[in-house]
Amino acid sequence: MLVFGVVLAVLSFVAVLALGGFAQQPKGPAQNPDVPVVVAAADLPLGTEITADKLATTTRPQIEATDSFQTPENLVGRVVRRAIAQGDVIKTSDFETSVSVPELVRSLQPGLRAMAIPLSKVDSVGALLQPGDFVDVLLSMEEADGINPVVVPNPNTSPATDGTVPAPYLSIDDVVNNTSIKVVVQNVQVLAAITAAPTDANASQPQPSPQPDVVVLLAVSPQQAEVVRFAQLDGNISLVLRSPADAGAPQVDTTGITLKQLVDQYGVLPPQPVLVTP
To answer: Cα-flanking dihedrals φ and ψ of residue 135, to 5°?
Structure first.
């Protein structure tokens, strides 16, 4: 009996120690609860203006909800600056203007090409352009170097006394204003607007040509790319910013503008010579 009592006491002591140690075991990490987030209810291509029907609310783990939105009301009316797939959590970075190469490629729609347009701040609507905006391409041409002369048929077709044949056309650049302006491409999307690095004013080597203020990447069709490239070489390009709500509007048929149109249709007074009396 004495031995049995000692053994029972030892077992009780060991049991107390074991239970005490178990009670002091560290607890496992607490699981973070899911939080409400706003997700895309449909694919949102680059430049989409968000409406309430394009949004949905769900819950996601906190690690997936960083920089996200909890209520759809905060997003209605905003324009996405990168493509968002259906079901993706909408984050603040989706509205930032910086675009990486993978995001740019993802934003390019089938059948379109990315074309770089170097422009000045004035020609590129200053600092207003952002990825997803829609623009029109405006071409301005003027006769400054003899590349595009304005000519009329030569009324004198008779050979000269020395046998030389007169030119079939006569240039009238000296007596007419041949500046011409026309919208040549409409409703193309801006993929990126990259501000050019400032040039070093103290550089010993001068720049071979004026550097652009900004390089704008446009999503154009192959045909539009040909038109824009020709305009780059033989004219001057400007971009005209469109409203986001006007992205799907049909093209507008414009007449183009020359001095004759300004005088005949808009009542602009033509230039008059100034006679100076001696």
So the answer is: -135, 160
**What does the alpha-carbon distance between residue 130 and residue 10 come to, in Å, rounded to a whole number?**
79
Q: Render 68-113 in DSSP notation, one character per residue.
A: B-S-GGGTTT-B-SS-B-TTPBPBGGGG-S---HHHHHHHSPTT-E
Residue 188 and residue 134 in contact, taking contact as beta carbons nearer than 8 Å: yes
Q: Check whether 16 has a pLDDT greater than 60.
A: no
Which CATH number covers residue 52? 3.90.1210.10
Inform me whether the pLDDT recorded for 202 exceeds 60.
no
Shared-domain flag, residues 140 and 217? yes
Residues 6+ apart with CB under 8 A from 81: 46, 47, 94, 95, 96, 97, 99, 130, 131, 132
Q: What DSSP letter does each residue of 233-269 carry, written as one string?
A: HHSEEEEEEPPGGGTTPPPP----B-HHHHHHHH-PP
Does residue 60 have a pLDDT over 70?
yes
The predicted-structure confidence for 44-58, as pLDDT tens digits, reads as follows 988 888 999 999 999
How far apart are alpha carbons 142 and 178 in whole angstroms?
6
CA atoms of 257 and 183, how far apart (whole Å): 10
Which whole number is the average pLDDT over 159-168? 78
Amino acid 196: pLDDT: 72
Which residues are CB-neighbours of 49 under 8 A, at least 6 positions away?
Answer: 77, 78, 79, 244, 245
User: At a CB cut-off of 8 Å and minimum separation 6, what does 171 contact?
Assistant: 149, 150, 151
The HSE-up count of residue 261 (CA atoms within 13 Å, CB side) is 10
Phi-psi region of 181 (alpha: psi -120 to 50; beta: other; left: phi over 0): beta
Domain range holding 127?
108-155+166-199+211-266
